[in-house]
Amino acid sequence: MLMSSSDEPATLIYGPNGFRVIRPGHYVLCAVSGEPIALDELMYWSVERQEAYASCELSTRRSLEG
Questions:
Q1: Left (φ > 0), alpha (ψ -120 to 50) or beta: where does 17 sit?
Q2: Which candidate, 54, 16, 49, places its Cα nearest to that of 63?
Q3: Number of domains in the chain
């Protein structure tokens, strides 16, 4: 079965002011919760860890882990 890019998560490079799409897709997975985040709703990520987060709370939780 052929899958479209919307069926697979995108691969991104996270920068301080935005992100660059390396592999197309319509979403990424939250590094903490595993839930999908639509690219047009993605607001929280870590440049250092190159991870996306579904919410400010999850981003903060991850940063407190060390």
A1: alpha
A2: 49
A3: 1
Q: Please enumerate in sequence order all residues whose Cβ is within 8 A of that of 38, keeping only pairs 6 or more positions apart, or say none.
A: 26, 27
Q: How far apart are CA 65 and CA 50, in angstroms?
A: 15
pTM for this structure? 0.86
Residue 55 structural domain: 5-64
Q: What is the pLDDT of residues 23-39, one digit of tens each?
A: 999 999 999 999 999 99
Rounded to whole angstroms, the Cα distance separating 37 from 30 reads 7
C-alpha span between 5 and 25 (Å, rounded): 5
